[in-house]
């Protein structure tokens, strides 16, 4: 019997008697069937301002993407766990220019920046799997919905040229992984969009500080001259001599901290930051914490001061993996496994292996200790609690 588990017949124009979503035609009418649906936010501007031009956004994306890409994956079919499998072989070297970590880091990065990740299948191996996998830039991809609301094609546009990926057949040439978006039927919502206001505040604060240094930077102090006759004006010779003495003896790292000897009615007035300047600096730190909050990164891991949510760095590190990295890695691995199963012709699953994450070693040891000491459980029940497949008979 032909493998029909992943049949896409339900995505075609439903004939009488076939199952189809009642809202599909409404979604297609609202989006415009046959026309590209554009994202509500300009992902290119968000990437430039929130990732390329913002250190907090850059570090948040890099921290999540690198951590999630390094999470080990296990391949199972429901009854056994594979040490070697064609899916694992494909992911180990998905294309000549990338390994597994590089591919998934790019995929996670695209999802964090735009809310959408796209994997392209290239070629066909003997096993039915693609020969290569490539990550597509999400800002170049647009979705073309059909009459039933499902995507019938993906358009990839570069420099005025377009390539259309047909999604009518099976298996799909593109795997689209998107984040939840409450107001968009086709595109996902990225943390960068949620943190857009905080990013603007943080970037504006940095630009203000740079402009202050360039145009109106406050010196450490001022030399005030009070003449004997009440006229606070130095002669040209006196002025040149004073400037030369300051440049030679009181500027630069070599002269840092050297006391200044003033004479002839000269007085030193130190200067500092006003309370409004200090409040502006705190506003910038608050914006940085909001950016980290949108991405799910504990501010402590980014070196942002003033945050005491977690007792120590190790606790913040565990929370980062449990609340941010593992949910993202599990969702992406499940989507990729289902897509590759469609190519392979049999269902396999991919899921993260928390036992291989050093940051969760303490939690793993505690769980294994509790399960192993439970004498009322059988070995099969203990393996099930630990997420391990059952042993083969005999």
UniProtKB/TrEMBL annotation:
Entry-linked InterPro entries: Phage/GTA_portal, Portal_HK97
Highest taxon listed in the record's lineage: Bacteria
Pfam family for this entry, one: Phage_portal
Comp. bias regions, Basic and acidic residues: 1-13
Chain positions covered by the region annotation Disordered: 1-20
Name of the molecule in the record: Phage portal protein
